[in-house]
Amino acid sequence: MVASDLAEDYHSNHDGWESSWPVEFRIYKNGECVWKGEVEREMEPAFYVS
């Protein structure tokens, strides 16, 4: 779940929409990598009519 939150923040607030996905993320605790993994982005087209 943390990785999903990281990916959402990266996509929305740090130009992640311009990145090539999957993106590798690492989580550190006390300077030591405790998790490393790739997160894939799914795109679903959405259409709105008003």
Structure commentary:
The longest helix is centred in the first third of the chain and has 12 residues, at about 1-15. This protein is about 25% helix and about 30% strand. The chain has about 50 residues and is α+β, with helices and mostly antiparallel strands. Strands 1-2 form a two-stranded antiparallel ribbon. Strand 1 and strand 2 (about 30-40) form a beta hairpin. The chain has one domain (about 1-40). It is elongated, with a radius of gyration of 14 Å. The mean pLDDT is about 90. It is built from one helix and two strands, in the order αββ.
Topology:
Blueprint: H1 2-13, E1 23-29, E2 32-39
Antiparallel strand pairs: 1-2
